[in-house]
């Protein structure tokens, strides 16, 4: 089963983000836009994990959550990976606060103890808004950087849980469901 660890935002904030990014979706671009119900911040993608290891991962998620106090995510700034001119992912930025970086690091250490490779790339927290079709020709995204620059969004989202998520792949794109939620308590 394909799983990952994520932070899910409150519905009110997901709705605000969706409204604020409407101008991006109005552009005629080869982008598959993500449903606001699926907006989340991925902390660790684990890939295909055998059922017998899912409970082990769930226990680590619970332990990490219990050692973390609730905190707020600061959201703002639209962008794309790897570049706005040739994007694969269109995103809304998330501030890499000390609380978020510590949570990410604790999760990496806990999961490394049970055999998951630690992430070596720099952590760039974001919320994926859309995935671009990479088969497009040069120039398809000309002017997209100007559209992004016109947008102004800032927000805060209270984070109280750490979620173990399952990814369901289909032709229409990925759909996500929560396998387990663990409250941030800071015990």
Structural summary, described in words:
- This protein is an alpha+beta fold.
- It has one domain: Alpha-Beta Complex (Cyclic Phosphodiesterase, Chain: A), CATH 3.90.1140.10.
- The protein has five helices and nine strands, in the order E-H-H-E-E-H-E-E-H-E-H-E-E-E.
- The strands form two sheets. Strands 2-6-5-4-7 form a five-stranded antiparallel beta sheet.
- Helix 3 (51-66) runs antiparallel to helix 4 (98-112).
- The radius of gyration is 17 Å and the shape is globular.
- The chain starts with a strand and ends with a strand.
- The model has no long low-confidence stretch (mean pLDDT 93).
Q: Which CATH architecture?
A: Alpha-Beta Complex
CATH homologous superfamily designation: Cyclic phosphodiesterase
Largest sheet: 5 strands, antiparallel
The chain-level structural class is alpha+beta
CATH topology: Cyclic Phosphodiesterase, Chain: A
How would you sum up this structure in a few lines?
The protein has a single domain (2-183), classed as Alpha-Beta Complex (Cyclic Phosphodiesterase, Chain: A). It is built from five helices and nine strands, in the order βααββαββαβαβββ. The chain has helices at residues 11-20, 22-26, 51-66, 98-112, 144-150; strands at residues 2-8, 31-33, 40-48, 71-81, 89-94, 126-132, 154-159, 161-168, 175-183.
């Amino acid at each position: 089963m394909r799983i990952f660890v994520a932070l899910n935002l409150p519905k009110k904030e997901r709705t605000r983000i969706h409204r604020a990014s409407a101008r991006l979706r109005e552009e005629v671009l080869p982008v598959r836009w993500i449903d606001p119900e699926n907006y989340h911040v991925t902390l660790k993608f684990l890939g295909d994990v055998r059922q017998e290891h899912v409970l082990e991962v769930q226990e680590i998620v619970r332990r990490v959550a219990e050692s973390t106090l609730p905190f707020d995510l600061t959201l703002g700034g639209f962008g794309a990976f790897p570049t706005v001119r040739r994007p694969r992912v269109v995103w809304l930025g998330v501030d890499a606060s000390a609380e978020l970086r510590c949570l990410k690091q604790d999760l990496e250490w806990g999961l490394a103890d049970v055999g998951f490779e630690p992430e070596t790339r720099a952590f760039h927290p974001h919320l994926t808004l859309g995935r671009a079709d990479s088969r497009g020709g040069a120039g398809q995204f000309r002017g997209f950087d100007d559209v992004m620059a016109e947008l102004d969004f800032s927000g805060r989202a209270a984070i109280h849980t750490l979620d173990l998520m399952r990814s369901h792949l289909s032709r229409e794109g990925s759909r996500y469901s929560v396998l387990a939620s663990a409250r941030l308590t800071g015990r």
